[in-house]
């Protein structure tokens, strides 16, 4: 499939005129989201700490460290200038250790990126989304959490704590955003073949895992839903993953 076409070969413009901010857009799921949304007509403003060498027609990439308030404010200012109508909080890291091995540095890295980062970037764009509502325009926030945002496992204490927290933030924001027409979605993928946790895409044991474009499809579904529809949550797994809810 080439950019600008859909699986049935037809051009799609379901997001034409839309401007979407994506954090962690330099690789993995975030880059897959950026690519798919562009294919469907959106302009994407993507951020990551290292955006060197990234060239995707339809996207602009800016340096963004979601743990750094000043960096977030700079990124958000460009997003507001571009009139973004949606934010995809995707930037995230994972550290997997038994409880007795978790260090304060591990804690700060994971919680600052996954939880504080989600809070800072969302907070920076909410006044803009509220102003859009006052002008009769709707906006959306899509948070990429995980299938483990509501369950845990041995070695997963820190990562799943961050994902439970992201889920709580997502749901609280949905209640708060109701007042200004904000549509809030949690995307909960199972195992995805990316660079996550210092892995490499294409490793043999990941052959049957979800691909970034599978998760991107869920984001597209949420962002292109009819105006009266709010997609609260999407849980998706590769067929080979043990069924776990
Ligand atoms: N892979 C999986 O199996 C899986 C499953 C469920 C959920 N998820 C979630 O999906 C999201 C994306 O993960 P992925 O699998 O695509 O991982 P990835 O391939 O490692 O990509 C992570 C992205 O986040 C960016 N990032 C990391 N720290 C950042 C920071 N402080 N500020 C801004 N950007 C930052 C990275 O760029 P820089 O390093 O250049 O900043 C990169 O663009 C994460 O939230 C993860 O928890 C992943």
TrEMBL record:
<comment type="similarity">
    <text>Belongs to the short-chain dehydrogenases/reductases (SDR) family.</text>
</comment>
<keyword id="KW-0560">Oxidoreductase</keyword>
<dbReference type="Pfam" id="PF00106">
    <property type="entry name" value="adh_short"/>
</dbReference>
<dbReference type="InterPro" id="IPR036291">
    <property type="entry name" value="NAD(P)-bd_dom_sf"/>
</dbReference>
<protein>
    <submittedName>
        <fullName>NADP-dependent 3-hydroxy acid dehydrogenase YdfG</fullName>
    </submittedName>
</protein>
<dbReference type="GO" id="GO:0016491">
    <property type="term" value="F:oxidoreductase activity"/>
</dbReference>
<dbReference type="InterPro" id="IPR002347">
    <property type="entry name" value="SDR_fam"/>
</dbReference>
